[in-house]
Design brief:
Length: 135
């Protein structure tokens, strides 16, 4: 019975070392891909482009957006982001047109436009009158 226990313990330790070795190999492969201009993701979810690598201090300088730099530990960079495959572009006519202002929010039937704005006193009177209707 004790022999079986020692065999199981040996298998457990073997699997643990094997997993650790595999993780180290993956980390070394990832580190070999590092270089200026590579898109990466950190362990805390920041995406950026590598600008500089300081081998002596194990620091990586990332450009998060144009002009915004962040310095992180080299081991915080956990993933190299591969460029996404170009999706087939759909014709522009198929996508709905979205206006860049609020002009579509007014209806033409009622004739309300931005020039028909009420004064603050009229707004207070209208809101007070609406409150009385509910009671």
């Amino acid at each position: 019975m004790s022999i079986l226990l020692f065999v199981m313990l040996g298998v457990f330790i073997f699997m643990m070392f094997r997993r650790n070795k595999k993780t180290q190999q993956q980390q070394a492969e990832l580190q070999s891909k590092f270089g200026p201009g590579v898109e990466v993701m950190t362990s805390f979810g920041l995406f950026g482009r590598i600008v500089d690598i300081d081998e002596a201090d194990n620091k990586v300088t990332l450009e998060l957006s144009p002009g915004n730099l962040a310095t992180v530990h080299r081991q915080a960079v956990t993933k190299v982001v591969e460029p996404a495959a170009e999706a087939t572009a759909e014709p522009a006519a198929a996508s709905p047109v979205v206006p860049d202002d609020a002009s579509s929010l007014t209806t033409r039937e009622t004739g309300s436009t931005a020039t028909d704005a009420e004064t603050p006193e009229e707004t207070l009177k209208r809101l007070n009158d609406e409150g009385k209707k509910d009671s």
